[in-house]
């Protein structure tokens, strides 16, 4: 690879770098990834636009029901991780025109989002994000703000079925942290009803260490996204207000 700041990068080089950081990552052509998303989630047939179309966390055996390894440019003997992070392969016009550092930054961002998705999925499977805990998180964020969050995520096609409280909260965590670390100025545009992003940071910190995941997902040679807001340097513990009634929480 040439100078990452000015030179280009090939898909093969990107794949090698990506898998060097995350062995479970698989770069998939756009049409393959969208096929897997629609068939695996049951979204086929009733949505014109594929939801969550740039990445998918899926068990390898489930993925292989919908795609052959050669469609991913991988040998049949490829040792897939038990859980795969499928990430959309860049289009030729993008990877051939952007400096390598920008491509790597974009894939740092996609990997970060996918890793947060995988982390939240694991928390739910381990019983740490039960329906009751999801309601507690929603209460801490604020019901009115969360109603808007759900609407925004649905409108922007981030939500995969089923869209219960825990799934919506989990996807919000991934989207929120992605914006917080890579496009912090966009938070107010996406979620104008949130009156305290510092408080949301505290709520989310109960489930994921965003700073550690951000650093761990960095791809070598990737451009930094820019200065981070001071609130991201350290997140103080959440001080919970007095609980409201179930009627208030809904």
User: What is the string of helix and strand elements?
Assistant: HEHEHEHHHHHHHHH
Q: What characterizes the major β-sheet?
A: 3 strands, mixed
User: Which spans of ≥5 residues are poorly predicted at pLDDT below 50?
Assistant: 228-250
Q: What percent of the residues sit in helical stretches (DSSP H or I)?
A: 40-55%
Report on the structure:
With 250 residues, this protein is mostly helical. The chain has helices at 11-21, 30-41, 60-63, 92-95, 100-125, 131-141, 143-155, 165-182, 187-190, 197-204, 210-216, 246-249, and strands spanning 25-28, 55-59, 83-88. The protein has a three-stranded mixed β-sheet with strand order 1-3-2. Helix 5 (100-125) packs antiparallel against helix 8. The longest helix is centred in the middle third of the chain and has 26 residues, at 100-125. The termini are far apart.
In short:
By secondary structure, this protein is mainly alpha-helical. It has helices at 11-21, 30-41, 60-63, 92-95, 100-125, 131-141, 143-155, 165-182, 187-190, 197-204, 210-216, 246-249, and strands spanning 25-28, 55-59, 83-88.
Write the layout of secondary structure elements.
Elements lengths: L10 H11 L3 E4 L1 H12 L13 E5 H4 L19 E6 L3 H4 L4 H26 L5 H11 L1 H13 L9 H18 L4 H4 L6 H8 L5 H7 L29 H4 L1
Parallel strand pairs: 1-3
Antiparallel strand pairs: 2-3
Helix pairs in contact: 5-8
Write out key terms for the chains shown.
250 residues; mainly alpha; three-stranded mixed β-sheet; 12 helices; 49% helix; 6% strand; globular; disordered C terminus
